[in-house]
Design a protein that fits this description.
- The chain has a two-stranded antiparallel sheet.
- By secondary structure, the protein is mainly alpha-helical.
- The radius of gyration is 14 Å and the shape is elongated.
- About 65% of the residues lie in helices and about 10% in strands.
- The chain has one domain.
Length: about 60
């Protein structure tokens, strides 16, 4: 079992993205893009669905490489 210190250290690793945080960011971005009828909405939706699937699978971090 990992300690809290190890978990905090991992969350600061620039090579990893916190799935929950990115999911929340994308949810806001998607809502704004849809509201503004932004053509990027479909791209944001694709990334949002990817992170949504990771959340459902219980994945906590996604590598950035």
């Amino acid at each position: 079992m990992r300690s809290e210190k190890q978990a905090k250290h991992q969350s600061r690793d620039d090579r990893l993205t916190c799935v929950a945080t990115r999911y929340k960011q994308l949810r806001r971005e998607l809502a704004d893009a849809e509201w503004d009828d932004d053509p990027r909405a479909e791209l944001i939706r694709t990334e949002f669905r990817h992170f949504e699937a990771l959340m459902k699978q219980g994945v906590m971090y996604e590598p950035n490489f």
